[in-house]
Amino acid sequence: MSLPVFLHPDLSLAEVGQPVGLDGAEGRHAVTVKRMGPGEHLVLIDGSGRRATATITDTQGKDTLAALVDDLVILPEPSPRVVVVQAIPKSERAELAVDLATQAGADEIIAWQADRCVSKWDAKKAPKALSKWESAAVAAAKQSRRARVPAVRGPLTTRQLCQEISGARALVLHEEAEVRLKDLTDLDAAETIYLLVGPEGGIGAEELARLQDAGAAAIKLGPEVLRTASASMVALASIGTLTARW
After folding, report:
1. Domain 79-240 in this protein, CATH class
2. Among residues 174, 243, 238, which one has the least CA distance to residue 212?
3. pTM of the model
4. Backbone angles phi and psi of 153, in degrees to 5
5. Between the CA of residue 14 and those of 4, 7, 20, 29, 146, what are the distances in Å?
6. Which strands, in side-by-side order, build the sheet including 81-87?
7. Do residues 182 and 93 lie in contact, with contact meaning Cβ atoms separated by under 8 Å?
8. Cβ(94)–Cβ(130) below 8 Å
């Protein structure tokens, strides 16, 4: 049975054989929700590549525990990095998109206010919406036992996105593209790959042209047209097998 995973704020000073503590929301989840106690084992991740297996030695109150580090590994960042640029889906699918991208290994997720997005993030709505995306990324990282939690930022307009990807390797998923993702043989040469996923209404010709002018290449995944929430997961899996990431 897999050990439960909890997010620790900082494992940079953790060492095998040394004590480590956990409190706050994660400590409460371990002590009160999971009812964990002395002698039980857990996994701690810090979201930056460190993962520690530890044995609980003591609990205090409803949200604090002490543990002894049994094992500690520092996992390198995958290469090439993949930044998922996700057009903002409708509310019921937004967190699912982040969840699936995180499970599939996205290193960073950028919210994209594409031209055809139904959901619009204004200055008032953006912070709360982005916080939900961050929470979804943390939950998915723990569920998939990742030591790294993808950074989440945005939203970017298409103009801002074009500036961001200029000079970088960028792939925009498009159902009418002639080049297939599986036919790309040079992805390992890139340090970072931007993977652009359009909204429910698709990417219009004018917007696609702007992205291509900025250097993005239109890529087709396969014969099926996927939902915006699941497209990045399928593409990330393909990139994983086409590169040294997996």
Report:
1. alpha beta
2. 174
3. 0.93
4. -150, 175
5. 19, 14, 7, 21, 18
6. 151-157, 108-113, 81-87, 192-197, 169-173, 217-219
7. no
8. no
DSSP state of 191: S
Q: Pick the closest to residue 106 from 150, 171, 76 (CA basis).
A: 150
Per CATH, 3-72 and 79-240 having the same topology is answered: no
Backbone angles phi, psi at 177, to 5 degrees: -65, 150
Q: Select from 150, 147, 151, 152 the least CA-distant residue to 8.
A: 147
Model confidence over 14-41: pLDDT tens digits?
Answer: 999 999 999 999 999 999 999 999 999 9
Amino acid type, 153 = R
- Partners of 102 in beta bridges: none
CATH topology for 3-72?
Answer: Ribosomal Protein L25; Chain P (2.40.240)
**Mind listing the pLDDT tens digit for each residue in 78-113?**
999 999 999 999 877 899 999 999 999 999 999 999
Burial class for 244, CB neighbours closer than 10 Å (0-12, 13-18, 19+): exposed
Domain locations in the chain as residue ranges: 3-72, 79-240
Residues in the chain: 246
